[in-house]
Design brief:
Blueprint (H helix, E strand, L loop, with lengths): L11 E5 L4 H12 L3 E6 L2 H13 L3 E6 L5 H9 L6 E4 L14 H28 L5 E5 L12 H21 L5 E5 L14 H14 L8 H12 L10 E2 L10
InterPro entries: NAD(P)-bd_dom_sf (IPR036291), Sc_DH/Rdtase_CS (IPR020904), SDR_fam (IPR002347)
Protein name: SDR family oxidoreductase
Keywords: Oxidoreductase
Length: about 250
């Protein structure tokens, strides 16, 4: 296998959550690999910044200001792509509350974005790929939370576990058409979503997470983006229904 297996020249990728963090890093890396990247997010300013990064580096980007919980908005955005080779469903939100204090509205909000938003993206991508007879790749974003029962992460963990089940089920349904579906389950990664504490507390949190890793550090968005590129490209042509865990060794499931 050569580096050409990672070449996405002539292909089109659609990335949700592209305004920052792992979504931005993935969109930029996919563009560097040669793909035309459609960037989607509800953060208009962040979208503009991501597209500018891609274009300034010589890549091609399109932007879609949308909410992934709105199926029709996603449908129209995906339909605007001349063809679709890669869907990276990365958009997500964080919520923390003890089980006994979790409200219906908390669970509904997280499931709407972190599960239904991924489901809608997968459905629209698979339909577009089937209609265009494209042997495409769908990449979903799970989390290291699927391997643990960390206090406070009920809503988040449940939604990400549902994403894993969606990934495996869809992979079994569309594989015969040449469409691959895989998930990335990153460990603790330094992103705007995880940076919600005061500076001192944030530093303590990162130090704790780093100590839990055999590598002695936390993840960066680019670490996860390389996993997305691998699954999006022909380098993973014989991989589907799998969960790739760039987590620094924090979790080593059998």
């Amino acid at each position: 296998m050569t580096v050409q297996a990672y070449d996405l020249t002539g292909r089109t990728a659609f990335v949700t959550g592209a305004a920052g963090g792992i979504g931005r890093a993935s969109a930029v890396l996919l563009a560097q690999a040669g793909a035309t990247v459609h960037c989607a997010d509800r953060d208009a300013q962040g979208l503009h910044e991501t597209a500018t990064l891609i274009k300034d580096a010589g890549g091609t980007a399109r932007t879609h200001h949308l909410d992934v919980t709105d199926r029709e908005q996603l449908r129209q955005a995906v339909a605007s792509c001349a063809r679709l080779d890669v869907m990276a469903a990365i958009a997500g939100i964080m919520h923390s509350s003890p089980v006994l204090e979790t409200r219906d509205e908390d669970l509904d909000r997280v499931l709407d974005v972190n599960f239904k938003g991924v489901l809608y993206a997968c459905q629209e991508a698979a339909r577009a790929m089937l209609a265009g007879s494209v042997r495409g790749s769908i990449v979903t974003m799970a989390s290291g939370a699927i391997d643990t029962g960390r206090p406070g992460l009920l809503c988040y963990g449940v939604a990400k576990a549902a994403v894993v089940q969606l990934t495996k089920t869809l992979a079994s349904e569309v594989g015969r058409h040449g469409i691959r579906v895989n998930a990335v389950a990153p460990g603790w990664t330094r992103t705007p979503m995880t940076n919600h504490h005061e500076a001192e507390e944030q530093a303590r949190t990162e130090a704790l997470m780093a100590r839990m890793s055999p590598l002695g550090r936390v993840g960066e968005p680019e670490d996860v983006a390389h996993a997305v590129l691998y699954l999006a490209s022909d380098a993973s042509a014989f991989t589907t229904g799998q969960i790739l865990r760039p987590n620094g060794g924090v979790a080593m499931p059998w």
